[in-house]
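ok so i was messing around last nite and threw this chain in just to see what happens. nothing serious, just curious
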Amino acid sequence: MMSAPRTTGAPRLRSAGLRYTLVACAVLVIAVLLALGTWQVQRLQWKLALIERVDARVHAEPVPAPGPQDWARVSAETDEYRHVFLTGRLLPEYSTKAQATTERGPGYWLLTPLCQADGSMVIINRGFLPLDAAATLEASLNATVPAGTDACAAAALAGRAPVRLNGLLRISEVGKGPLGLRSNDPAQNRWYARDVHAIAAARGLQTARVAPYFVDADAGQYVADLDQAARPFGGMTVISFPNNHLVYALTWYALAAMMAAALAWVIRDERRRAGK
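result:
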């Protein structure tokens, strides 16, 4: 027997159930893409408001740094990059170097405790030290407070003069350093993240008296205790907020539009075939 000849016309139409399922899936994908685009628009508005708030804080007149009674309420949302001032005695012998890379090249941040009149302490990032300048300070840094000694009281008895410092409040860095590549190693005195309580503990300071933030000193701050060749460069805080939300929003909306166009074409094609 001879086999029936093959049909050369259009392929058989898909079942109605399958068509409805595909359409529903496509509509769901479009809805998700639109939601992602809208979320990115909301993130864009939030980021622009954040940038505006931070810019206002940075350029405002300095206000008193939060005291111990306010430490529990200090947060990145409300206080990061606030322009503040402090008055107290520096403890340069208990300074710590934290590795840094800046526009001036590789080097260190010089972190020095400052004792305030109420006995509380704030770690001051006095600025950036290039490698050669840091080498000249190596022998005079990283001292540990002797057991049973009040470093602040000792500085006052020694007649160390109080100084006033202005700078930007920064929330303590916990964990790894920049880019999350390396962790602090207190035992080897290697510091990458500016974790104020870990640094204070390594220097033998009473961590309960240390603020949960540090202050990036403005340029031209008090440096009389340091030789000219070893003076850090202050005012080098980098304030940068990546803001790609508009690009992301346009991408999601474009994908949604492409999916909608493809769905419309498929529906039109199915209707055309059904009409034959």
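not much to say yet. DSSP finds six helices and seven strands in the chain.
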